[in-house]
Amino acid sequence: MRSPFATLNRLWRALMTGACFTLFGIGGLLLSLIWFNILLLVVRDTQRRRRLARRSIAASFRFFLWVVKSVGVLDYEIRGVEALRQDSGCLVVANHPSLIDYVMLASVMPETDCLVKSALLSNPFVSGVIRSADYLVNSQGDTLLPASRQRLARGDTILIFPEGTRTRPGEEMKLQRGAANIAIRCGCDVRVVTIRCTERMLDKHSKWYDAPPTKPHFVVDVRERIAISDFYDAAQQEPTVAARQLNRQLLRQLQYFGRS
């Protein structure tokens, strides 16, 4: 039998989860309606405005994570942050167990790009953030690869969750080949990041009010940087074959290191 304290703690975390995500939504609207419009009026240089927008997003996420940790909703730690901050011109690929994975990573990557689902453009709480940060959208079709190549060539990092959606607990992990294709065809390295959590929280089958029995602890590990030259030699190999090989390697690493 659970103690009254444990029951109250679980109820408190459910209540605070709702309050924190209300804060998240309001914050997204305020950024979109006020701050990003101020940047649009004041900062004429497009590149500088985008950089300021992304740094603002990262700062907002750090504040949000401080709040959720302070009120006891969850704990988290990110190991190997310096490697992420020093990376340039590479893809950052991560598994995707929870709704806040992007928030944790973007909070310590203040100038990263991100490949997002086109459906998010219709979400009033985040659409303004996506547009102001000039994130790549996965529905851009023929322009996605050239845009990725251009951004990687100027030193950007691009964050991608190659599962395409949050991990489905109990199901075999499957990766879409988009991240591997971009890496091969743009000739960029890949940084692997794995995310684990002691409890199921905000996953594909959970509601926001489904507080786990104990407080979740997220661990984000920054792992190796895979050299693209180990997988692809344009003179000897077809890019589609190399992309399949790289995708299998990414799947093995994310499956093995991403286990809770």
From TrEMBL:
Superkingdom to which the source organism belongs: Bacteria
Pathway of action: Lipid metabolism
Native source organism of the sequence: Enterobacter lignolyticus (strain SCF1)
Transmembrane segments: 12-43
One Pfam family from the record: Acyltransferase
CDD domains tied to this protein: LPLAT_AGPAT-like
Protein name: Phospholipid/glycerol acyltransferase
Keywords for the protein's UniProt record, in alphabetical order: Acyltransferase, Membrane, Transferase, Transmembrane, Transmembrane helix
UniProt KW Transferase keyword: yes
SMART domains per record: PlsC (SM00563)
Keyword flag Acetylation: no
Biological processes, Gene Ontology terms: phosphatidic acid biosynthetic process
Phospholipid/glycerol acyltransferase domain span: 90-198
GO molecular function: 1-acylglycerol-3-phosphate O-acyltransferase activity
